[in-house]
Amino acid sequence: MAVDGAVESLVLKYGDELRTFRVISLDQISMASQDNEDESLAQALAAAIPGGSDDNILDGLPLASGFKGKLRYIHSAPRPCDPLFPPPPGREPEKTRLSSHFLSLGVEPTRTAGNSVLISPYLKEQEEGVLGLGVEVFIYHTKYLTTIFVSKADTNGYITARNTTKPACTAFLRWLVNRERRKHPHRKIVVSLFARAQSQYLFPGSAEQSSKHVLDDRQLIKWWAKVLDPLLDLPCTGEIKPEINGYVTIPGYDAQELRSYLPRTQHADGRSWRAGHPLGELAETRGVSTAAPPRSLLPRFPDDPKARFIQELDDEVGLAEIDITSSPSKHKSGRWNSVRNLDRFWEAMEFRQECSSGRVVGFLWVVISPSQVVGKDDLESGASQEQLSQNTISSEAAIEGTPTPTPKRRGKRKPLTGPVVARQPRLKGGSSSLTATSTDLDGMLNSVRGDGLLVSREGYDKALQTLMHLDFANVEAAARSTSKWLAEVRSICGLSGDWAVDLVGTAAHPPARGGGYLYPNEQEAQVNDLGGIVKKKRRAGDVGAEADGPAVNMLSGGALRKKPKPSAT
């Protein structure tokens, strides 16, 4: 056993294989192989999803079925996009790049929730399986911040294996986070999402499937908090010891009311869940003062209730979706009239249609800050965070008092002369897999490791739009829709076969309790002794004795006395 300060590493032998374990605390042990640089997405999911187990039969409990199906993962390369945060007055927009990721898990038609019904001839011959789980994630890259936004996640009830959806979502997000940490070890990472209950997100018609379990607003917020909770146990990478905290906020809820939505898992190194939001911390990371206009502190995600409200506030004061640095005198300070700070913004969100009339929308974040070590990459990348923040504050103060100086005029460009050389047409932002050759596809597809299929941005959007117009109302319709979607993706990339990776869960099932299963970080509930306030159950003899007596108490006529009538005068 190798000891390094408060962290211990333990090497155990499983057959012919050596596995290394890292002890974070007495209650939490994480396998170091999960954060191996060579770990593929398929390996990460297989290690997180429980496999089949018949150990419960010895205890008289039902058989725990494991997941066995296919993994399909498509993603696009980072490309320039609109800034996630609007810039403060006098600042240039942040250069932002966006990459899209879509994960799907499928099962054979005979292993779906409808396997008890008669299998049609089409389902017997269909080999692609049925899509059962889909997760879409957007990753925004800036100089100092990486934002992993969970856009959509949906199931359709066709995956019958227990405890599959939650560990699959956690493993996918952990895999993305670890990959970003390896690429940019000194950059802050934030995982963000908003939880809003809806009958279907990615699989049209799946709401009609009786086996689909739809959570309400409050259940969904707690579910996502449990999905993100294992991210607080991420180990160190090299010499960097990250500071990780989770945040939950619900418009209209105070800190005391939010406590019921926070996971109660104990984490090492002071990591915990907090009621509130990290927008001020993220602003300082970006070099923006917390005193900047609220619109510059709030991100704008697709289909986000916050983004729609921000757009309405911008329209009220004439702040269009253009570069506000072009005319600061016209746009003044870039502030709204009715909402002057973040606290007022969240108070106003309570009265929005998405957050009123009994509806609840939760906003969740997990912030990973490698704050204890500053690498050479950060020092060589330009100005430090402190200098950038000071420059921002001084520039904002100058805007309040004096107008922005006119930029220097550029010299006239000389006219071009000489012969015109024709260039081959290409898509903006680099090459596209829509026009890729078979040789290029070898670099895009790595089905052996399960790292997915790289497609162009246009191809990715077309694949997701196709999925949104299919039908998953029943097993056969879902199987046909799956085949149609796979054919569309293959035509986009010029593939002749399927890029799926066989996936079998290998994780051990959590211990059973009350016919169900505990999640890895879920603590046993304490038993409250109610003997002093709960009446004991009557014995059979006592019940029989009472049955011998009269069921109705008869009152004699002498026991009743009529009220005398008042005499008439």
From TrEMBL:
Entry keyword Magnesium: no
Entry's EC annotation: 2.3.1.48
Principal location listed in the UniProt entry: nucleus
Top EC class for this record: transferase
Catalysed reactions, as listed in the record: L-lysyl-[histone] + acetyl-CoA = N(6)-acetyl-L-lysyl-[histone] + CoA + H(+)
GO MF terms, alphabetically ordered: histone H3K56 acetyltransferase activity
Keyword DNA damage: yes
Region of interest: Disordered: 378-441, 539-569
GO biological process, one term: DNA damage response
GO cellular component: nucleus
Basic residues composition bias: residue spans: 560-569
Localization in the cell: Nucleus
Keywords: Acetylation, DNA damage, Nucleus, Transcription, Transcription regulation, Transferase
Composition-biased stretches (Low complexity): 429-441
Name the record gives this protein: histone acetyltransferase
Naturally occurring in which organism (per UniProt): Recurvomyces mirabilis
